[in-house]
């Protein structure tokens, strides 16, 4: 397990090395093409040192990579500071959001698919403004109202990935406790459950409820998120959220273990259709 920036450097380096190899270029030739010393290319490829967005663009040009989506993804991994583009809107909140949260948002904005197990609260991408405010207020004690407003604003802005031209494919397993825990009062919870039913009607959103009747399951150890990227599975990553930080798992064995765990949860959860009925029944007080 490693923190986000380290994982991102390693993933970026591995992908750049693969692209260089595919282009039939040695590290020495790559260094000459971009006007660097060979040691700089080696440090970037091994993840020993980071690469600036401009460095990544130079290397991609040298390797003849013209796939716009792949270029954007790799520049994102370098930590693009381009605040003018839609995909980097979160940089405007540098003074408010911790680096781990910015890392999460950047991955979320560039991923093609997201699989998540939630055991306590509704996933951020599906929260109503009222619910998001209540959850944030409870999570951070004594939060000034202005800062609370900003964090809720960020939470809602993240939801644009579900309305994009190529929307994020979201598959979420919700423990029954998520539906039963009253957050913000009965009215807030009622509107939140209605929002879940509305979101589930989208073709790229799949919700399944894991009822208490399913008993103990592999997800009892806690929630997790799996991000997948359409251009290369080498960039897939598991994110485990903690109170003060996030951990990223990117080893093949970790990804396989969490993928198998998520698939197992799907078999124990209610079907999407039955899950909608369950949510509606919960909202009705059944």
Automatic annotation (TrEMBL):
- The signal sequence is none
Any matching Pfam family: DUF5753
Q: Which SUPFAM superfamilies match?
A: lambda repressor-like DNA-binding domains
**Coiled-coil parts of chain:** none
Ranges for the HTH cro/C1-type domain? 16-70
**CDD domains listed in its UniProt record:** HTH_XRE
User: What is the name of this protein?
Assistant: Helix-turn-helix transcriptional regulator
Q: What is the lineage of its organism?
A: Bacteria, Bacillati, Actinomycetota, Actinomycetes, Kitasatosporales
């Amino acid at each position: 397990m490693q923190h986000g920036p380290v994982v991102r450097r390693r993933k970026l380096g591995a992908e750049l090395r693969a692209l260089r190899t595919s282009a039939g270029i040695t590290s020495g030739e790559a260094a000459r093409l971009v006007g660097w010393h060979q040691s700089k290319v080696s440090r970037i490829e091994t993840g020993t040192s980071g690469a600036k967005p401009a460095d990544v663009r130079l290397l991609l040009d040298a390797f003849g990579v013209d796939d716009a989506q792949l270029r954007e993804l790799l520049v994102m991994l370098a930590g693009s500071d381009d605040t003018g583009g839609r995909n980097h809107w979160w940089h405007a909140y540098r003074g408010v959001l911790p680096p781990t949260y910015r890392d999460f948002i950047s991955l979320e904005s560039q991923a093609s698919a997201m699989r998540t197990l939630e055991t306590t609260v509704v996933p951020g991408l599906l929260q109503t403004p009222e619910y998001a405010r209540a959850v944030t207020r409870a999570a951070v004690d004594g939060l000034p109202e202005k800062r609370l407003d900003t964090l809720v604003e960020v939470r809602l802005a993240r939801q644009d990935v579900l309305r994009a031209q190529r929307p994020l494919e979201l598959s979420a397993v919700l423990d029954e406790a998520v539906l039963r825990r009253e957050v913000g009062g009965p009215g807030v919870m009622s509107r939140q459950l209605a929002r879940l039913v509305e979101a589930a009607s989208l073709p790229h959103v799949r919700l399944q409820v894991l009822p208490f009747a399913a008993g103990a399951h592999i997800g009892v150890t806690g929630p997790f998120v799996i991000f997948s990227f359409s251009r290369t599975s080498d960039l897939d990553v598991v994110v485990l959220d903690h109170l003060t930080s996030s951990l990223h798992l990117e080893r093949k064995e970790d990804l396989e273990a969490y993928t198998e765990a998520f698939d197992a949860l799907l078999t124990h959860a209610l079907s999407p259709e039955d899950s909608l009925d369950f949510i509606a029944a919960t909202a009705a007080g059944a």
